[in-house]
Amino acid sequence: MADGDLTNLWVYLSASPLVGLTITLIAYSLGYRLYLYANRNPLLNPVVTAITVLIAFLQISGVSYATYFEGAQFVHFLLGPATVALAVPLYQQCAKIRKRLLPLVITLVVGAIVGAGSSVGIAWMLGASLEMQMSLAPKSVTTPVAMGISEQIGGLPSLTAVLVVATGIIGAVTGTTLFRLMRIKDDAVKGVAMGIAAHGIGTARAFQENKEMGAFSGLAMALSAFTSAVMLPWLLHVAGVL
Questions:
Q1: Same domain assignment for residues 62 and 88
Q2: In terms of C-beta density within 10 A (0-12 exposed, 13-18 middle, 19 or more buried), how is residue 147 classed?
Q3: Radius of gyration of the chain (CA)
Q4: Is the pTM of this model over 0.85?
Q5: How many domains, in total, are found in the chain?
Q6: Which of 3, 65, 215, 235 has its CA 20 to 30 A from that of 131?
């Protein structure tokens, strides 16, 4: 094939929305294979690898993010059904959830307050602007909800999205190690902690451990998002921040 033909082919593909879908699937597949090759080392989380590959691809190829997302939005759409599908393993753990309902509710409220309060407090002590503090406040909430909260309380939704992903990756990488160091053996407890602290990425990591941990992580992720959306604006208003 002549160089001119290759150039024309690339121009066509780079303008096609399918390039976003294709490169996303390839990046995650490479990341997952590397993750398996490293015996599921959390430092090589496939999400981290895929993000790195995608950033490199967009920088090198010159494809705009808008063009990329035209295709990647198909994967984005599947986040909804995937989240709803978490109800299946959750239903299988209903008996255990009913027995631990009160501790679960208390943990959700305390987790939402501590998660937001600690990040805002540390940012304030380090001299961060109010806008940065508000962008940090919902960092432990799943991305779509976190961006909505951030916009409502005066943060930057785009910055919040980056912080949420970083929080999830850190939680997924360090969570299981921390549980071992703290000698926490109850999968339900570990799942709730992972879901509250590391949302979707942490939940994916929890499911890799076992179904019970994943189910409780999915429950905690969903309820934590609801709790934070209700409580954060109110708490900030009471504190005189808003």
A1: no
A2: buried
A3: 20
A4: no
A5: 2
A6: 65
- Confidence check: pLDDT of 14 > 60: no
Full residue range of the structural domain in which residue 137 is found: 84-238
Residue 88: partners with Cβ closer than 8 Å, 6 or more residues away? none
11/136 Cα distance (integer angstroms): 39
Cα separation, 218 vs 195, in Å, equals 6
Residues 191/216, Cβ–Cβ less than 8 Å = yes
pLDDT, averaged across the chain = 80
Contact assessment for residue 143 and residue 169, using Cβ atoms and an 8 Å cutoff: no
Q: Are 219 and 97 in contact (CB under 8 A)?
A: yes
Counting beta carbons within 10 angstroms of the beta carbon of residue 5, is it exposed (0 to 12), middle (13 to 18) or buried (19 or more)? Answer: exposed
Lookup result for tokens 């109010």:
130
- Whether residue 177 is found in the same domain as residue 197: yes
Residue after which a domain boundary falls, among 77, 110, 138: 77
Q: Who contacts 225 (Cβ-Cβ below 8 Å, separation ≥6)?
A: 141, 142, 145, 146, 199
Tell me the angle at which helices 157-181 and 46-61 cross, rounded to the nearest 10 degrees. Answer: 150
Q: Which amino acid is at 213?
A: M
